[in-house]
Structure formats: structure tokens, C-alpha cells
Amino acid sequence: MSVRRLDPNQPDSFEFTAENKVWAEGQIKKYPDGRQASAIIALLWRAQKQVGGWLPEPAIRYIADFLDMPHMRAMEVVTFYTMFNLSPVGEHFVQLCGTTPCWLRGSDELKAVCKKVIGDERQVSSDGKLSWMEVECLGACANAPMVQVNDDFYEDLDAENFEKLLTDLREGRPVKVGPQGGRKGSEPAGQLTSLTEVGGAD
Amino acid sequence: MPKLTVDGVEVEVENGVTVLQACEEANADVPRFCYHERLSIAGNCRMCLVEIEKSPKPVASCAMPAADGMVVHTKTETVKRAREGVMEFLLINHPLDCPICDQGGECDLQDQAMAFGVDTSRFDENKRAVEDKEMGPLVKTIMTRCIHCTRCVRFVQEVAGVPEIGAIGRGEDMEITTYLEKSLTSELSGNVIDLCPVGALTSKPYAFTARPWELRKTETVDVMDAIGSAIRVDARGKEVMRVMPRLNEDVNEEWISDKTRFIWDGLKSQRLDRPYVRENGKLRVASWNEAFEAIAAKAQSTTPEKMAAIAGDLACVEGMSALKDLMASLGVMSLDCRQDGTKLNAGDRASYLFNSSIAGIEEADALLIIGSNPRTEAPVLNARIRKRWSQGGLPVGIVGEDVDLTYDTEHLGAGPQTLKEIADGSHSFARVLEVAERPMIILGQGALTRADGAAVHATALQIAEKAGAISANWNGFNVLHTAAARVGGLDLGFVPGEGGKDVAGILDAAASGDVDFVFLLGADEIDTSKLEKAFVVYQGTHGDAGAHAADVILPAATYTEKSALWVNTEGRVQMGRRAAFPPGDAREDWSIVRALSDVLGQTLPYDSLQQLRAGLFEEHPHLAQLDTVSSAASVTSGPGGSMDDAPFSSAISEFYFTNPIARASKIMADCAATYGNKEEGATGTNG
After folding, report:
1. Residues B482 and B652: beta-carbon distance below 8 Å
2. Could you give phi then psi for residue B515, rounded to 5 degrees?
3. Strand ranges in B61-215 using DSSP code E only, listed in sequence order
């Protein structure tokens, strides 16, 4: 965690697409009358998606006005939750877990790969395809080390398959989501050690 | 009603009270930073921890409802250690810059660290540093000192009604700021300075000028608006250093407007400190005798019919009383205290008072505002309306300009046409007023200073009566004044006598030559271009419009420099006290008039303020009843006449420039440049 500030380069304006506007109004309807502000996180998330992975200042203002709430309240929410990015990210935004289990299983090596393939943390690569950031635990410790790229988890990584993954993403080649090492989900590596009768029945 | 035991003392408290309030009831001292009795409860500073039996951990008393049978301890070893722990955490990131901090000497953190903290720190890491934030020309920020109590955030949201301050980031990186560091747009923003328990938010104009222990504190009243807020004037030597609010539940609670708080530099600049006499078209410094002789020479060469007197917006009761006595002894009938031309009459007191009283706003259940913008005319009163509104069940209708009053309002119409509709019941808001048990009508000067002001007054009264707003135990007919002097002047009857002219008449007659001697008692907000032909005596404090038109200037004392009475818009008589002496030869108003009366051969029958007041109280017994209001059960209005259709406008166009002191203040000019009408801010008054 560190102090998060708005990006110095901001677009002039922001507006939901017609489709997102309809969706946003649907979200507001989930809450009682006068409680429309409760929809803020959903709307901010949608705005972030629309912009391409980050929230510019006009979008924060737009959402606050959309929900009839003070601009400052929206700013508080945006700066509180680290999932809202305040600066542009790459087309493939890599969130690299550096918390203890991943770290023990070699996340430092993945970090080195990121530095090599993409560049410095929080910097978008010159082709705009990739950027990366170290984050806290994403809850896939059984398949450590892992990264999240946009909405998908990539697990059981090592320097080799991670570099290949990044290159494939950059080149636009299809990639496999989930564990990269060949096991299914978070099953034990190798063979099942318990529940063998149930698990092996497929 | 829960009964609980605090440190062995049994207390019974109201339902819904917190443990902290119960402790206060039992005289147990509980330290706190984030808790404030007029703001919502945050419970985030943890300083108010107490021990409650059967609770496994210390409890934040400010957020814990008092329950029957609780046994609370505030002086045990556990509580002491808990407080020491909280204090150590608070001080981890708080800089040790007390010697250069303006809050030093009146800092809650400093005091409580002495009382409840430990004497050493175990923290060896680097302290956090936070960038300072811009909040406008009044509030200075040193955000490294902030302890995140969020009092300022809650104040601007709840009391001021402009939710502009917030906390960005989280945890150690939390920072208090405004959206994109924009200036606060509240007329009450200065109050966050008082609320801040540390030196994070301090007064920008007061920065590095004085220490609290050097200041002589004088409790007095404010005259910037007609509310008469309770203030404390802090002076060092001859100089007023700052103005602070004082507690008065009936009037301002503990808030004051920015104009009240930051006016003090205007007390020092543009002051009239010597008498002046105009010779060959130029004003020159003169002695008191020369000035008086010049006035006497003119007064003797004219007749009482051709003489007139106008009292300004800041005049005190004693000054107006003395001037009225002098004019009466000279036989002058043309005198007026209503320099804005308001059509209120001096006769029936209830017809020009804020009859519900300011505290009474909290009992109202419907409100109609006519031709007024309380947010600029009386910001503290507006905060009281907002307080009532936020409790729910207060529909507010506006006839006049559709302005943002910081609470929900319904704009009913712009002018008299709508008023007529409400009066004859054809408007839907008439029904709202009718079903309300305690309807309230606020009639502003914007509606009363028009040519048809008397008719508006009559129609408003008709609406009030029809809605049942005036009964034995509730009087909902309210006139909101904008000038501190107005009610006092009307109480004294400082209005035209038989055959006398009012302000407009005096000015017209002066322009045509029918009046050739005009005495201005601090009257500046009039069209002084009409006074060119007449001989003008200006008795006042600042080199403003009136002084520029004057042939003789008599320098007077401002509200911080004299003991005097003012009557606020409710009819509450309040006494101001002297915080500093007037500069140079300036004197108190009444004594100048008394000395002049001697030279004019009409010596007034008092030699001291006490004698003057004794006579005043005899003639107007209610003026002796300090700090009280009496409400009347009936209101009268003069003959109405017809209203024209022009829309109502607010009486105040530029909040920061309403009187000579404000116009002389650099701070007010800065505020106007930041917030106000940009054109006016740039025309040289801010230079």
C-alpha cells in the first residue's frame, strides 16, 4: 500500500456507453429508493472496464453525478479500494501475487520476468500491451505462485512458462487459463493422496 | 431512563445517551478527539476508552449506548494503560513541531498528551509525512499533523451542508482533503478550524501572529449580520488579533460565519482616527473643536426642516439614542435608521421581529421563505434551518430567487404573484402550511425594501394568519434582518417624525436642495451621489462611501471598541464589550453626539454611558432585559396596497462586502475573489 494519486494525464470527459447506462440503471434498481449511492462500486467497476482498466477523474465525477452523490464521496471510495486503478494499465494487466505462499514458491522469479518482459512496476509497456503490479494474496495459494491477468487466474507458474504466457498474451496467441503445470484445479501435483475412490472415479 | 454507576457514582440519564455523556453527567473526565456533541458519532480516535464491568475489553464510550445497570470505571489501571496506548499510537505519526504550530497552547492533543500520555516514545521508524492541501483563503492546512478524527468531514457534511471534505486513501495513507483541492464553498468554513483538535486545520490569516496566552479575551457580540452571534474577541495590546465563537445555544450554538470570524483585519485598515473638515473641496485633519464649530455654523444657518439624520447598519442603540435625542432637541423630524429603505414600521414590535426565535426554528414543521437567502444573509441561522431539516419533516418553500440553501427546497415562484396564490389558497403550498402545526414564514429584506414592501408584508402576514402560524404559544411570522442596527433603531423609533422624510425622501430632498444638512451615523450603503449639494456630517469608523461624501468627519469606535447594546433580529438585546481602544482620536458614538450637543447649545442630559442607559431603559424598559426575547401573540401590518410583479431578489448581493469593515478587510476581498462574483472581486476593492 502506498499513497495513491490521480494520474497527471486525464481525458477531457467520460460517459457511459448506451449499453452500460442501461446496465447501470438496472444496478441502481437493486437498492431502495434514495439509496442509489449503494451502487457505486458496481458502477465504478463498469466504468473502469469501459475505459480499459483504469478510472480517470472525469469518470469518478460522472459516476458521482450519475448517483447524485458528492464528488468527494466517490473519490473516497475510489482511493480506498486498490482494485480501482488511478493510472492507465496495459491491455493485459498482470497482478502478481507476492504474499508469503507465492513468495515461498518463487514469486520473486516471476517478478524478475515481469521486469524483463514488461519493464518497471506500474509502467505500461511501450506497445501498450502489458503492465504489471505486485498485489497481496489473491486466494489461490494452493496453486502458488500465481498471477491474475485482467479477469483470469494463471497458476502453477515458473519463470519459463510465465515468460511464455506473457509473450503469448502480447502476441495475441490463445493461452490456457488456470494451472499451467498440467494438474486440474488445485488437486495435488502428481496423484491423489486422499479421497482416491471418489476422485479417481471419473 | 437507564441508571448506571460511573466510578461509584450512580447517575440516571436520558434514553439514547452514550456512556461518554453519562460519564460527563457523573463528572468523570473522559478524554476524546473525534467525539463532538453536535456531530454524528465516528468512534475512530479510541481515546475515550473506559472499562465497563462484564465487558472483556475496554469500550469506546462515545459510541456505546448507556444501558441500565452498567458499571463504568474511568480511573482504573486498565483505562489508564489503554489511554496511554492510544496516545502512543496517535503520536507515532504526529510531528513534534509544537513550537511552530499555531494550535500550540490550545491544542487538545498537546493537553491530553500531557494528561493521559506517557513521557517517551518507543517509535524508531520514520514518521509519515503528508502533502498539505489547499482549502481556500481561510483554512490553512498542515496535514502531517492530522490525526484523522474526521470532525471536519462530518461538520461540512452535516452542519454546513456542503460535503466537500473527505478522506482519501486508507490506513496509514489516509488523507483529509477536498475534491481536487478545491476551496471550501461554505460560509461557515472557519468553524473547522475550531473543531480540529490538532493543528492540521488552522486559520490562514491568523497564521504565526499570536499565541493564545498573550491574548486578552473579551466576550462580546457580533454585528456582521442581524443574528448577533456570541463571539470572543482576542486582542493583544491595541490590536484585535482574531475573533472566535462563544457558546450561545439560543443564537449561534457554537458556530459563526466566516464574515464574523475573519473580519478583524478590516478593523485596522481605512480607519478614521482624526476629525476632518472639508476646506476648498478637500478634507483636512482638524481638531474636535474645529469639526464641531463647522457643524454648529452650518446648523445655525439652516432650519430644522432642512436637516436630516440617517443611521447605518452597524450603529449601536446608545449612539442612535443620543443622535435621536439631539435631533429631537433641534426639532429635526427627518431621521431614519432604515438606510436600505425597508418598509417596516416602528410601531408594533412583533411586526418586524423574528418572532419564532432562532432556537424556535427547531420546532417548526413547515417553512416558507419569502425574498430572502438566509445562507448569505444569516449563515448561522441557515445552519439551524438545515439542522431542523435534517431531522426530517420540514418542507421548505421559497418565493424569490431559487438558491441553494444546503437543504432541499421547493421553488414556488419568483415574486408577488406566487405570494398572492399562496395567500388565496390556490397554491399547493398553502395546504402544506395549513396542515403544519407550527408553520413558519421568513420574510427577508429582499421583499421588504421594494416600493411595495408594505404590501408584501401585509400579504405575508395574511398567509401566516391563514396558516394558523400565530397563536398563543407559537408565532411563526418572522422578519429576517440583515443589519445589526435595524431592530435597535426601530425599537428606539429612529424613524421620521411628523412631516419628516424617510431615507429615500431625505436623499431626494438633498439632491434637490430641500435638505441641506445631513448627519450620517455610519451610513454608507446609500446613494451618496445625491448628497453632493448638502452639508454632510459623517460619524463613523471607516473611510468608506459616507466619509467620501462628508464635509465634516467625526471618527467613531467600531463594535469591538465600545460597550454598547445591539438588538438582534429576534429582538434579543445583547451587550457588546470593549476589546480594544479605538485608534487615535476616535470616540464612542454617544459621547461624540453628547459633545456636539454642547457646541450646538442643546446639551443632552447625560454625562456618562450609565446615565444615558438609565434614561434609555426608562423610556424603553425592554432594552434593559438583556439576552432574552419576548414573543407577542399578535402581529399587525399597515395598509397593504398592491404589489407589482417584479421578482424578489436577495438583499445581499456580495456576502463578503456588506459593511464598511468588511469592505476594508483584505481577507474578505480575498474571499470575494475566490468565491464571490468575479467581476466585483476584480474591480480594485481587493487591491
Report:
1. yes
2. -120, 130
3. 71-73, 139-141, 165-168, 175-178, 201-203
Average confidence score pLDDT of chain B? 94
Which region holds residue B392: left if phi is over 0, alpha if psi is between -120 and 50, else beta? left
Asked if residue B678 has pLDDT above 60, the reply is no
Q: List CB contacts (< 8 A) between B169 and chain A.
A: 3-4, 79-80
Q: Grade residue A118 by pLDDT with cuts at 50, 70 and 90.
A: very high
Say how far apart CA B682 and CA B663 lie, in whole Å: 13
Contact list in B for residue A75 (CB cut-off 8 A) is 166, 168, 179
In the chain, the amino acid numbered B387 is: K
How far is the C-alpha of B95 from the C-alpha of B87, rounded, in Å?
13
First-to-last alpha carbon distance for chain B, in angstroms, is: 60
Residues of A in contact with B157 (CB under 8 A): 70
Question: What is the mean predicted confidence (pLDDT) over B104-110?
Answer: 95
pLDDT, residue A1, reads: 59
Nearest CA-CA partner of B228 in B324, B343, B354: B354
Give the burial class of B125: count Cβ atoms within 10 A of its Cβ; 0-12 exposed, 13-18 middle, 19 or more buried. exposed
d(CA B65, CA B18): 4
CA gap B438, B631 in Å, rounded: 15
Q: Cα distance from B174 to chain A (closest Cα, Å)?
A: 8
Instruction: Please report where in the chains the cell 471550501 appears, as a residue.
Output: B184
Q: What number is the average pLDDT over the span B300-329?
A: 96
Read off the pTM. 0.93
- A30 Cα distance to chain centroid: 25
Please report the pLDDT score of residue B316 as a whole number. Answer: 97
The C-alpha atoms of residue B196 and residue B174 are separated, in whole angstroms, by: 16
d(CA B41, CA B19): 12
Per-residue pLDDT, B636: 85
Letter string b/e over residues B288-327, b meaning 16 or more CB atoms within 10 A of that residue's CB: bebbbebbeebbeeeeebbbbbbbbbbbbbbbbbbbbbbb
- Asked if A3 lies within 8 A of B179 by C-beta distance, the reply is no
Taking residues B66-85, what's their average pLDDT?
95
Share of chain B above pLDDT 70, in %: 98
Q: What does the alpha-carbon distance between residue B81 and residue B170 come to, in Å, rounded to a whole number? A: 27
* pLDDT at B686 (0 to 100): 38
Selected for mutation to probe chain A from B93, B130, B172, B180 (highest A CB count within 10 Å) is B180
Pick the residue of A3, A5, A57, A72 with the most B CBs within 10 A to test the interface with B by mutation: A72
What are the distances in angstroms from CA B54 to CA B48, B51, B75? 18, 9, 17
B508 burial (CB, 10 Å; 0-12 / 13-18 / 19+) is middle
Residues in B closer than 8 angstroms to A2, CB to CB, are 173
Contact B553, B342 (CB under 8 A): no
